[in-house]
Write a structure and sequence with these properties.
alpha+beta, SH3 type barrels, five-stranded antiparallel β-sheet, 2 helices, about 25% helix
Length: about 90
C-alpha cells in the first residue's frame, strides 16, 4: 500500500535547495520539495508521497491525518519502515 503521509519540515536545503529533512512519527528522512511552488519553512507540514512533498498542509490537518493513519496498524508501520529504509540523494 502506498500512502501519502504528513511530515514536519525540520530543515530546508539539505545540501541542495530542492531537498528538505522531514520527520514522520519519529522517522527522519530527506524528501524532494521541488514540486512545491514555494519551499516550506522549518516547522511547516508537507504531504509526502514516494519521496516527494506534494503540498503544504495545516498542522492540525496533518496531526489528524497521522492519528487516522496510526489506526491502520500494520499498513502504517510498513509505510514508516519503507520510509526509514529509503534515501534520496
Amino acid at each position: 500500500m502506498c500512502l501519502a503521509i504528513p511530515g514536519e519540515v525540520i530543515e530546508v536545503g539539505v545540501g541542495r535547495p530542492e531537498l528538505a529533512k522531514v520527520e514522520v512519527s519519529g522517522v527522519r528522512r530527506t524528501v524532494n520539495i521541488g514540486l512545491l511552488a514555494q519551499p516550506p519553512e522549518p516547522g511547516e507540514w508537507v504531504l509526502i508521497h514516494v519521496g516527494f512533498a506534494l503540498s503544504v498542509v495545516d498542522e492540525a490537518e496533518a496531526r489528524a491525518t497521522l492519528a487516522l493513519l496510526e489506526d491502520l496498524g500494520q499498513a502504517y508501520e510498513d509505510e514508516l519502515a519503507a520510509m526509514a529504509g529509503s534515501t534520496i540523494e
